[in-house]
Design goal:
The chain is of the alpha+beta class and 108 residues long. Helices cover 61% and strands 14% of the residues.
Amino acid sequence: MANSKNNPIDHHALRLSADTLRALANPLRLRIIAMLLEQPSICVQNIYSELGVEQSIASQHLRILRQARLVYTTRKGKFVYYLLDEERLKKAGAIAGQLAALVGKPKP
């Protein structure tokens, strides 16, 4: 019931955004996103190397980002590359902005 007077937010979109924001609620995952904003695709080995963490830790955080569909992978030979789903990130930001605007409205 999006865009009605009593319910101006699409709840499905809000749920997707909540899942996205939950996935982003970690400094290491935000660093991964920042890396992917700078480079269109990054080999998984470069991600954990640049972050300075063990491969298993980077993999756990990348899994969370994949589950939130913020990143996706492609394989080139024996290497796995991560890419950012910028459209998904933009949609989550738009919904978060709508929610912030609602919270900031004065009460009648």
